[in-house]
């Protein structure tokens, strides 16, 4: 009796009546009912979440934000945005309500979840842009007594909303920070331009101060020469005053001794000749005195005017230095206000201002030096003016002195010429002596004035020389200060340039892209190598495998696992084993094909490899039937019960829902040992289009289980040729 005939015989037995036929039909559709109904119920639960009631409570009072670039204000209400997003994006059926109603609804089951947006939600979100950050929060109220998965889904939905709001707020905050950086960059650029202008002005000031120092040095040397000349002039004028005094005394004696003219005519002729020669020499010596005095007066006046111009330039330089220091103070105040307005921390602002103060200190000291030099120039100008006035007086008196000397020389000539007529011109001599006395007196007075003016000139030129020396020394310090000013402004300019280079200044497109990236720095690019499509599709490999085991299990409630007739007839044990396996296998093929057809065409879960999936399910039912047959043949009723226990173990260890790595021990060990694991794995790759190598691995393992189970059944069949008491009267019958 061949295995096929044994199978046909068992099929005739099973279908020998109406009820048996109905029983076989029921067993054939049990896997389809199990898998089909379960997959239909869980086909796409996430697509119906909009029917799950949930409450949303918006208590947000809103907030006001200020654009740092324009100063414009706007009102935001992120809490209402959250509610609008929940209603637009779906998820649950969100119902706006009050906080008390929401909490009561979650408690009594009216709502599966409630999301409460607090009154300070918007204010907390915008606080980061104001450098006073407060973390905003959403309160999610759930109740696992209503539905545990509803709580999990609510957490997921609220997490997605939180991420969306955080991305939006982060982008807006990043935009404000970038706008602030742009404003700082613009202000630093303006400050750098001002520093360049300041550096240019300080360079010109340094050049002017150097020229002033050179002029002051030249002036000091000239003033010293003038002082030496004035001293020589004073000595000559003093000697002249002494000589004219003697001349006046002689003229007086001449007038007195006119009565003795007759007796002293010869002596008078000799004296007159000598006097005429001396007066000629004196006239020659004083002939250029008016012109020299006028030249000296004009030179002193030019020196005074030059000193006045230099003093004016010094005052202008001092005023420019004072304006520079005042401008730096204003710039420091503006910089501090701008940094604080842009949200720069106070300690950073203080560090920037301290660095600026270190650079401004040398400028202030240089400005003080410039003011001191200007005051010295003013003093020098006043002294030069006094010298010019004294020289003017000397120049005015010099013509009278020269004229007096000339008159005296003429008188001496007349005296010499008239000496021969002395005897006869006693009256004339008396008159001439009187004139001579008057002229000598005038000469003496002019000589005294000359001596006084020369002394004043000597004193003035001495003061001029001392002032010029002081000016030269002062301008030397001013030159050093101007050099420090140039160095300081150079450091300021370089520091501002370095700071400007470090402050970002993106264009509008780059700033917008940067703000968007900072708000949402990570983008997930999902790449699906295969897709189940729906939740039910994802569970299909597990429930198809489980339904195949259940279908094989219920078959052995009617089908005999081994033909006793074949054993009694002495047929080979393998034929009896295969014959007992073939009948439930054929019914199992009907089971899995019907189940696959309903899943494919009824539920819309389309396999990527349809024929492969059908063949794999045939192999799967063949393997499960062989395993359950072996259990029934070896253990009888206990084997039937063990098949149920084995189904339960595989149900929790096959990894059909959660990843198998999440299983605790020893279920993780059972995962690799039991056949349903490989049934689920193979169906996943066939239904969703995965790795063919994994399918072949699953096929190899299932074939090994099939062959092993048939071998074990064949061994049991060979042993059951001998009837025992236990077989005749089993302890447990199902």
The gist of it:
With 734 residues, this protein is mostly helical.
Would you give an account of this structure?
It is found in: Membrane. This is Putative membrane protein. The structure is a single chain. By secondary structure, the protein is mainly alpha-helical. Helix content is 77%, strand content 4%. It contains 20 helices and 6 strands. It has helices at residues 3-14, 18-41, 78-89, 99-108, 121-126, 148-256, 265-286, 289-341, 346-418, 426-502, 508-519, 535-555, 564-568, 573-602, 610-635, 637-653, 667-673, 675-688, 692-719, 725-728, and strands spanning 53-58, 63-66, 73-76, 93-96, 113-117, 138-142. Helix 8 packs antiparallel against helix 9 (346-418), helix 14 runs antiparallel to helix 19 (692-719) and helix 18 packs antiparallel against helix 19. The mean pLDDT is 75.
């Amino acid at each position: 009796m061949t295995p096929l005939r044994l199978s046909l015989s068992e099929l005739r037995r099973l279908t020998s009546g109406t009820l048996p036929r109905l029983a076989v039909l029921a067993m054939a559709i049990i896997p389809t009912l199990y898998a089909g109904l379960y997959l239909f119920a869980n086909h796409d639960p996430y697509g119906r979440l909009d029917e799950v009631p949930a409450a949303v409570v918006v208590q947000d009072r809103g907030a006001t934000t200020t654009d740092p670039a324009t100063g414009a204000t706007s009102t935001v209400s992120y809490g209402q945005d959250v509610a609008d997003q929940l209603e637009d994006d779906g998820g649950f059926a969100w119902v706006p309500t009050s906080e008390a109603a929401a909490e009561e609804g979650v408690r009594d089951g009216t709502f599966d979840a409630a999301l409460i947006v607090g009154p300070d939600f918007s204010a907390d979100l915008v606080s980061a842009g104001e450098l006073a950050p407060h973390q905003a929060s959403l309160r999610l109220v759930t109740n696992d007594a209503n539905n545990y998965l509803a709580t999990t889904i609510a957490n997921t939905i609220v997490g997605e909303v939180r991420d969306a709001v955080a991305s939006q707020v982060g982008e807006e905050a990043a935009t404000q920070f970038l706008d602030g950086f742009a404003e700082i960059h613009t202000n630093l650029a303006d400050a750098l331009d001002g520093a360049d202008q300041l550096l240019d002005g300080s360079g010109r000031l340094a050049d002017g101060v150097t020229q002033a120092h050179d002029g002051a040095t030249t002036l000091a040397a000239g003033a010293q020469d003038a002082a030496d000349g004035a001293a020589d002039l004073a000595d000559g004028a003093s000697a002249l005053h002494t000589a004219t005094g003697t001349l006046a005394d002689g003229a007086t004696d001449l007038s007195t001794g006119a009565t003795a003219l007759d007796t002293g005519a010869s002596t008078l002729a000799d004296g007159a000749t000598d006097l005429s020669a001396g007066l000629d020499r004196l006239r020659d010596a004083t002939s250029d005195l008016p012109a020299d005095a006028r030249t000296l007066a004009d030179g002193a006046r030019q020196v005074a005017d030059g000193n006045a111009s230099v003093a004016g330039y010094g005052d202008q330089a001092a005023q420019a230095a004072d304006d520079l220091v005042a401008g730096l103070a204003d710039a420091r105040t503006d910089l501090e206000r701008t940094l604080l307005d842009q949200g720069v921390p106070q300690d950073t602002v203080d560090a920037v201002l301290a660095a600026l103060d270190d650079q401004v200190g040398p400028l202030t000291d240089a400005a003080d030096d410039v003011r001191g030099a200007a005051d010295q120039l003013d003093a020098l100008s006043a002294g030069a003016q006094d010298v010019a006035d004294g020289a003017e007086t000397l120049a005015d008196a010099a013509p009278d002195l020269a004229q007096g000397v000339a008159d005296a020389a003429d008188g001496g000539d007349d005296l010499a010429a008239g000496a021969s007529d002395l005897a006869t011109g006693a009256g004339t001599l008396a008159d001439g002596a009187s004139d001579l006395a008057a002229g000598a007196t005038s000469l003496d007075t002019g000589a005294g004035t000359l001596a006084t003016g020369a002394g004043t000139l000597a004193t003035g030129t001495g003061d001029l020389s001392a002032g010029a020396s002081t000016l030269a020394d002062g301008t030397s310090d001013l030159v050093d200060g101007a050099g420090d000013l140039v160095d300081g402004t150079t450091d300021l300019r370089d520091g501002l340039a370095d700071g400007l280079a470090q402050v970002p200044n993106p264009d509008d497109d780059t700033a917008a892209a940067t703000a968007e990236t900072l708000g949402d720095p990570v983008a997930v690019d999902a790449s699906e190598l295969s897709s189940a499509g729906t939740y039910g599709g994802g569970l299909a490999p597990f429930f198809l495998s489980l339904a195949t085991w259940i279908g094989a299990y219920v078959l052995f409630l009617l089908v005999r696992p081994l033909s006793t007739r074949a054993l009694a007839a002495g047929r080979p044990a393998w034929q009896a084993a295969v014959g007992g396996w073939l009948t439930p296998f054929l019914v199992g093929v009907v089971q899995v094909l019907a189940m696959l057809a309903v899943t494919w065409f009824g539920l819309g879960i389309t396999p990527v490899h349809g024929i492969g999936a059908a063949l794999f399910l045939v192999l799967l039912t063949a393997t499960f039937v062989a395993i359950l047959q072996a259990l029934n043949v070896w253990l009888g009723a206990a084997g039937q019960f063990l098949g149920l226990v084995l189904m339960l173990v595989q149900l929790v260890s096959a990894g059909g829902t959660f990843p198998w790595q999440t299983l605790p021990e020893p279920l993780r060990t059972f995962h690799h040992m039991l056949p349903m694991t490989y049934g689920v794995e193979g169906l996943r790759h066939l239904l969703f289009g995965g790795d063919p190598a994994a399918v072949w691995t699953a096929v190899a393992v299932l074939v090994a289980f099939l062959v092993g189970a048939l071998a074990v059944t064949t061994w049991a069949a060979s042993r059951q040729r001998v009837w025992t008491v236990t077989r005749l009267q089993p302890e447990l019958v199902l």
